[in-house]
Amino acid sequence: MTGRAERYRVSVRQDLRPAPLSGRVLKGYVLAALERLPAMGADVRVRVVGDGAIARWNRDFLGRDRPTNVISFPDSVLPANPGAAVSGDIVVSAPTCLEQTRGWREPAEARVFFFILHGILHLAGHDHETGGGAARRMRRREMSLYRAVLAQQRRGDGIA
Q1: Burial code of 42-71, b = ≥16 C-beta within 10 A, e = fewer?
Q2: How does residue 1 score in pLDDT terms, banded at 50, 70 and 90?
Q3: What is each CA distance from 30 to 21, 25, 52, 113, 130, in whole angstroms?
Q4: What is the percent of the chain where pLDDT is above 70?
């Protein structure tokens, strides 16, 4: 059987200094989520930035002149098929994510991962922008994956 390191390429880059999060832990969360999608393969690049940087990305690519929590950029303009390879970039603002989850009990990495997972689901072809049933399905999938990955982490099953 092919190992996850061979099927899934995941990189985590933190532009903030000092780096506010454990890249190793974030990468472990992402790998665990990809295994649960399931995806045939993946090439996911996560970039952790501050509010100023994500505001520029949001303005330049989406026309929204404000910070946001996460933006995803799929490698393909075609929508992903269920179970297909997941490929693209995810830009996430650690300060915004941590502010939006201030009351949560989870560690900072788990709180930021929640938004990275949202980006992963967009890369996998899920969409909530149209609202309705698609948005509800994406939210249910997001919550079930998030809970499963955190439960795996608490058990110590393969997440750093």
Answers
A1: bebbbbbbebebbbebbeeeeeeeebbbbb
A2: very low
A3: 14, 9, 25, 8, 26
A4: 88
Q: How far apart are CA 148 and CA 155, in angstroms?
A: 11
Phi, psi of 117 (to 5 degrees): -60, -40
Radius of gyration of the chain (CA): 15
- Coil, strand or helix: which one is 10? strand
User: Which residue(s) pair with 11 in the sheet?
Assistant: 45
- At residue 106, the 3 state secondary structure works out as coil
- pLDDT range class, residue 93, cuts 50, 70, 90: very high
Alpha helices in the chain (DSSP H): 4-7, 23-36, 51-62, 94-100, 108-123, 132-155
